[in-house]
Every structure is written in structure tokens, then in C-alpha cells.
Amino acid sequence: MPTLLYLHGFNSSPQSVKAQQMQKYLQQKRPDIHFICPQLAATPAAAWSQIRAICDDLRAKTDGAFGVAGSSLGGFLATQVAERYGVRAVVINPAVNPHILLQDYLGEQLNPYTHQRYQLTEQHIHELRELRIDAPSCMERIWLLQQQGDEVLDYREALEYYRFARVCIQKGGDHSFIRFDHYCAQIIRFLEL
Questions:
Q1: Cα–Cα distance measured from residue 39 to residue 7, given in angstroms and rounded to the nearest whole number
Q2: Close Cβ partners of 180 (under 8 Å, ≥ 6 residues apart)
Q3: CA distance 12 to 41
Q4: What is the spatial distance between Cα 149 and Cα 152, in angstroms, rounded to a whole number?
Q5: In the beta sheet, which residues pair with residue 81?
Q6: Which long-range contacts (CB under 8 A, 24 or more apart) does 119-124 make?
Q7: What are the tens digits of pLDDT across the range 55-98?
Q8: What fold characterizes domain 3-191?
Q9: What pTM value is reported for the model?
Q10: What are the backbone angles phi and psi of residue 107, rounded to the nearest 5°?
Q11: Residue 146's closest CA among 90, 79, 74?
Q12: Where are the domains positioned within the chain?
């Protein structure tokens, strides 16, 4: 069965609006596609370990018939999946340099979905830096969905980093990517699921 792996962003969860919209679309229009959206660990190395285990399992069970989509920090991680597993990825308002962005968030964190409290430390910033791919070779397998009105991330960083990918840039919008549900069918087509 083809599978979509959806990766949520920083301090988010499978209950996020975009994850729920994608799951609903698949249930209604593409029940033949298996949807996986794990609650990722709060810290980068632990989250990447989870993602690797899921991808290794999918590779073994689906003969590689899976795609990945991710939002914000999930987009950053989806890029790693595309690079390391050779699959297609859709990245939505992705974090390009989370090791820089999250410097402003060091200290105690509270995930509003799970109510988990944890400390974001310099070690976690180092883990993000280690995960970043400076020159990905997978850009032909990536689709960037970006809104210029993103109030959290500078959209120009994503345009520069993903300049060799397929790009959809919209004026306005915000970090949540307004009207994401209008892209669900196109995302599935791009991922070839």
C-alpha cells in the first residue's frame, strides 16, 4: 500500500490543522493511501531517530512506495528523508536554518498540543546543525509550497535553498499556509502515490 509520511513542525503534533486536513482528504478521496503522522520527539536527534526507523520500516514493507510531506521544522526533516531515502517530498513553509531560528527559543518549552514541557538546549541546536544538508542532491524530487506572508520564517531563505526544486510561491498567507487543503490532491500527484 502506498504511504504518505507527514512530519509536523516544532512544538506541533498530528492534531495540527494541516495534518488533519491531509488525513481527512486521504480518508475521503484516497483511502488506498496509508497515512502516517507520528508524534515526533521534542528534540532533533530523537525525532530523526524516530523518522529513520519509520522510513526503514516503510522501505522494507512497501518497496519504497512512500512519499513525505512536512511543514516548518517537519519540512526541514522531510528534506533529509528525500535526500537519504530517494523519495519525493513536499515541504510547506519549511525551516531552512532551524539551528539559527531556534536560538531564540532556548530554554523551557511547552508543546501546546501535547502539554509536554522540556528544555531546548545548545545540544539540540548542535543536533539541528548536524542534520542540515548544505547542498542537497534531491531537489528534483522536492516541491516547495511557500507563502510570502510567513511571519515566523523568512520566505526568501526557502526560495534560495530550494531554488532547484519545483516551487509554488504565493503572496500573503502566513506560517500556517492558508488554504493548504486546496493542495492535498496536487501533493499526492506530485508524490506519485
A1: 8
A2: 17, 18, 21, 92, 145
A3: 10
A4: 9
A5: none
A6: 120/42, 120/43, 124/43, 124/44, 124/45
A7: 999 998 867 689 999 999 999 999 999 999 999 999 999 999 99
A8: Rossmann fold (3.40.50)
A9: 0.95
A10: 115, -160
A11: 90
A12: 3-191
